[in-house]
Amino acid sequence: GAVVSQHPSWVICKSGTSVKIECRSLDFQATTMFWYRQFPKQSLMLMATSNEGSKATYEQGVEKDKFLINHASLTLSTLTVTSAHPEDSSFYICSATEGQETQYFGPGTRLLVL
Amino acid sequence: GQNIDQPTEMTATEGAIVQINCTYQTSGFNGLFWYQQHAGEAPTFLSYNVLDGLEEKGRFSSFLSRSKGYSYLLLKELQMKDSASYLCAVRPTGANNLFFGTGTRLTVIP
Predict the structure, then answer these.
(1) Is B98 part of the contact surface with chain A (CB cutoff 8 Å)?
(2) For B61-101, how does the pLDDT look when each residue is reduced to its tens digit (9 = 90+)?
(3) How far apart are CA B60 and CA B54, in angstroms?
(4) Nearest residue on chain B to A47, judged by CA atoms?
(5) Cβ distance B8 to B104 under 8 Å?
(6) CA dihedral B43, B48, B53, B59 (to 10 degrees)
């Protein structure tokens, strides 16, 4: 149980384009989903917290207009990186919880912006 | 603010025991988690402590002292596949999110 998937696992795009990453909880209803970013050899940095049916809560320093988060159902959240630039290249990881339980992580999406 | 400290790197021998420490100062506390992360992969859940004491799960144990803001992860009978980063994360009061330490990169040598 407690499986979280992400799609795509790898994406390469040109600077200025937008990229959408999907995060799904496969066998449980995720009341809350989290989006993290991880640069090489660094730890996970929380970007935003997303509750189903409400607006995401962004961490300080994360631009909400650049990183659009939609949590339309209890099993799906999406992160859209708008007008991506090379400095947005990173490993994006989502996690999901059911209530106050443990966070389970997706396999991550590696984004490379050329 | 949140401050979570772990050693950056550790090396240990196959078959041995290693202890990875984590100290934290956070605004509120509602649980401490340990995750394992292999290079290029997402973290996988190892353990969770919310009360003081030791939680044992096979070769892995985790200890918590809330009064000292301190936890450790103990790995016994080390195997080569245990080479990974180990992340300490704290959940603040009244929230579901986690704050992560920088992680400890463990290398197991023959």
Answers:
(1) yes
(2) 999 999 999 999 999 999 999 999 999 999 988 777 888 98
(3) 10
(4) B97
(5) yes
(6) -50
